Amino acid sequence: MKKFLSLAGVLSLLAAAPALAAPDSADRPLAIAIHGGAGTIEKSKMTPEREEAYRAKLREALDRGYGVLEQGGSSLDAVIAAINILEDSPLFNAGRGAVYTYDGTHELDASLMDGRTRAAGAVAGVKRVRNPIDLARLVMEDSPFVMLAGEGAEEFARSRGVEMVDNALFDTDHRREQLDKAKKKLQREEAQERDYQAAVEGLPVPFRTGTVGAVALDREGNIAAGTSTGGMTAKRYGRIGDSPVIGAGTFADNNSCAVSATGHGEYFIRYNVAADICARVQYQGRSVNEAAGEVINGVLKPVGGTGGVIVLDAAGNMALVFNTKGMYRGSRSSGQPARIAIFRE
Ligand code: ASP
């Protein structure tokens, strides 16, 4: 005669089996990946000193983020800590080193998402906030909204005691040179009666390289993603790219993956890149590497969308994928030592 265990019997057996219990949180994997933008980054055009400066800053950001995770901090804390280092460096197109708009100012965008709850916060077109990723977090945690833009976002920032700076703090000579070159090119094209959009699309990729982002996995098994940028050189009319758009430039859900993107924002918005990658992971059972490759190389590349992504799942699997010549990037996890790279290797 067959014997069936009652539900209560099964539950008591499960409770008594230590091998089936969740691993102690100290044994769970930690992981972080960062990027500092993707584009035509060529070794032949980079001096050894400049390359070293980029590597050192990426390393500092990676170590800071990983240190937060090791101390038991949340994935959100780690993402913010890493991004703050990159925002404060003039090397990257975010915060301090943001590109110039057509009118010679700086307009910054950032977003953040918590994979545990799918809470999210974003800011777009802010001019006076020193670390836009911090403001994105406040929007997420201290407002009933997801995205705030322009003057309203700054009013909210002031009301929450966020550090405000003069827009000129973001001035740098190398970005000014990029603006001068971009404007000359745009004005030449406009004189030939090509429309503004065609002229902007014709701008070489370096005019927007340097967006920064991070994804992280903490001891509790939660993932998070964040992205911060100055956008595109010579942008105009309040143009906003993908970086502050949840689903396009940033996405995180413990059930699928965390993504931070960099690249030609108009394509990343239209192809909903970050959310598409995570949907493939969740509904098609793809690995993060397969899903990122399918979207970046299979979907975006054929239509001319240049850029890359960093992707991480809640088991600690990571993918750093791009269809450009290079992407400033770094990764570290419990099983893997820190790795910094710039070119295709
Ligand atoms: N995605 C950013 C934007 O379009 C720029 C970049 O990542 O290079 O604003």
TrEMBL record:
InterPro entries: Ntn_hydrolases_N, Peptidase_T2. Residues 1-21 form the signal peptide. The active site is at residue 211. One of its GO terms (molecular function) is hydrolase activity, acting on carbon-nitrogen (but not peptide) bonds, in linear amides. GO terms for biological process: proteolysis. Substrate binds at residues 239-242, 262-265. The keyword Coiled coil applies. Keywords: Autocatalytic cleavage, Coiled coil, Hydrolase, Protease, Signal. It comes from the Bacteria. Residues 172-199 form a coiled coil. The record marks 210-211 as: Cleavage. This is Isoaspartyl peptidase. It comes from Microbulbifer yueqingensis.
